[in-house]
Amino acid sequence: MAVPRLNFEPLGRHHDRRAFACGEPALDDYLKSRASQDVRRDVARVFVAVPPGTGDVAGYYTLGAFTIGLDRIPEEFARGLPPYGDLPAALIGRLARDLRWRGERVGELLLTDAIGRVLDATSRLAIHAIVVDAKNDTAAAFYRSFGFRPQVSRPNRLFLAVATAREGRR
Ligand SMILES: CC(C)(COP(=O)(O)OP(=O)(O)OC[C@H]1O[C@@H](n2cnc3c(N)ncnc32)[C@H](O)[C@@H]1OP(=O)(O)O)[C@@H](O)C(=O)NCCC(=O)NCCS
After folding, report:
1. Per-residue buried b or exposed e for 117-127, using 16+ beta carbons within 10 Å of the residue's own CB
2. Does the structure show a pLDDT above 90 at 4?
3. Distance CA 23, CA 27 (A)
4. pTM of the predicted model over 0.85
5. Cα 132 from Cα 134, distance rounded (Å)
6. Which of 91, 142, 146 for a ligand 1 pocket mutation test, highest count of atoms within 8 Å of Cβ?
7. Residues in CB range of 95: below 8 A, 6 or more apart
8. Residue of the nearest CA to atom 18 in ligand 1?
9. Spatial distance between the Cα atoms of 144 and 160, rounded to a whole number of angstroms
10. How far is the CA of 44 from the centre of ligand 1 (A)?
11. With contact defined as beta carbons under 8 Å apart, do 53 and 131 qualify?
12. DSSP annotation string for 101-122
């Protein structure tokens, strides 16, 4: 299947979000009414996938700083980590693709771009893992298919070690 050409850019005034619909009203409302405010207040960075030459939004995701408790990391991944309590992480709090772009691998492109931005940031800021909040079991299955693993006692919050993501990028 041909992968669509999309630009990934920070959310701006010129992006037309009125028609955005991903099937999860809370995620649509967030983009329309809350996202810009969160950016202004340094609560989240919001990136949109845009077909070149348009202001249309095919999808979006949010990124923020986060911490993950050592007790949330499955034992197999916790081996060798210092017993300090919390580890630095990046959070993909929301990720959604417009229904008009179903079947075009936009979800994968969004996630790849988000992971790439986190990896780029790791030269200036230590980030041990990428955490995602899946809104439901379908979304959790989507993330699992990219190597994310459920946190201990929180199956819809998943994580991917940055070291693993780096391996995948090579
Ligand atoms: C979850 C979501 C982002 C996936 O986007 P998408 O564009 O459908 O995903 P893609 O087409 O890029 O899928 C790429 C791969 O991911 C995996 N995948 C996608 N959806 C999956 C699912 N429901 N279960 C398991 N794997 C899945 C598959 O490996 C798929 O490859 P394949 O089509 O060759 O099998 C999209 O369905 C969406 O926006 N849903 C509404 C909002 C939401 O729930 N967001 C996530 C939580 S915040």
Report:
1. bbbeebeeeeb
2. no
3. 8
4. yes
5. 6
6. 142
7. 59, 60, 61, 62, 107, 110, 111, 114, 132
8. 142
9. 9
10. 22
11. no
12. GTTTTHHHHHHHHHHHHHHHHT
CA–centroid distance, 143 to ligand 1, in Å, is 8
Q: And the tokens for 9?
A: 């850019």
More confident residue, 123 or 152: 123
- Pocket around ligand 1: residues whose beta carbon is below 6 Å from it? 22-24, 27, 94-97, 105-108, 134-135, 138-139, 141-142, 145
| Sequence spans of domains, the chain | 7-169
List the CATH code of the domain at 7-169.
3.40.630.30
Ligand 1 geometric centre to CA of 142 (Å): 5
Q: Cα separations (Å) of 109 from 96, 113, 142? A: 11, 6, 13
Between strands 129-133 and 154-161, the pairing is: antiparallel
Show Cβ contacts of residue 168 under 8 Å, excluding neighbours closer than 6 positions: 115, 147
Model pLDDT for residues 80-107, shown as the tens digit of each residue: 888 878 999 999 999 999 999 999 999 9
Pick the residue whose CA is nearest to atom 15 on ligand 1: 108
